[in-house]
Write a structure and sequence with these properties.
mainly alpha, 10 helices, 73% helix, rod-shaped
Length: 329
Amino acid sequence: ESIAQTQEDLSAIDNQFENSEMNPALEEVTSDDKQNLQDLVDSIDELLEAEPNYLSEEEKDALLNKRTELTEKLQQIEEVEESILEVEDQIQYLPSLEEVNSEDEATLQELLESIDEVLEYTNLTQDEREQLIAEKEAIQGKLDKISEVKRELGSLQAREDAVDKENVTADDRGTVEILIQDLQQTLNVNENNMTEAEKQDIKNRISQLQDELCNLEQIQEDLAGIEEKYDNAPGMDDITTDDRYAIEDLVDEIDTLLSNNSEHMTEAEKNALNEKREELLEKLEEIERIQNAIDDVFNKDAEVDIMDNVSSKDLEAIEEAQNAINELL
């Protein structure tokens, strides 16, 4: 009876072992087969332990060979499960799509490669494969987001590099204003997808460009002030010796502005200033001519109050007086 039972058990084990649904090939076995394979191993162990005397050496060797093959398949399943668990363990600590940034790029890329390696296994269930593909797509979406932000930052940097910040003029105002708006917009929209260093860099660049605009505004104010003083200055025919200091001050203002901010002024602005400067210098020459004529009349040393506020129009009368005095002498 024991021999008959043993043979019956052997037959059952053989049937299960040969059943491809219960015992798939090594390259096809999945976690869905784990329980069947383990049950078959347990059955073999029980038979080898309970009825060793009723088994021939050939039957024992056959059972041990089957057990070895089943164990290899269980190890393959375990290897795949461990690989999946390693991937899942890393995925749970990943930032969300709304918070991922360039500091996560290397980790995401490595994880993507790990998933590709797991997907190469032929021992995945359909659900496992679909889950891994979905996770891969989610990771790729995060990498795409990082690339999108990097492209936007790179584009802004290229536009900013095209602006010669050492020589920004009024012609560049519109470009700089739009660039500041776009930098601020990028910061507002992508702040959560930027590193602290990237955010601080954007803020610093905005601040630098705003400083350039402030400098341009100050130059425009200075130009307007010079323009107003120039327009209010007397013409060549109306100039008097009393205008000397105001004109000299105005020339100094022009010189200072050109010296300190020439690189931030357009050619038209600089040319206009230089033209005004030349005209003012001509007025100073005229004042000097008037003063010299007065000095000649009064032997250059006399201090006479009545000679204050002498203009070019008075110069003819002064010259006539000088001629009359010379005739008397």
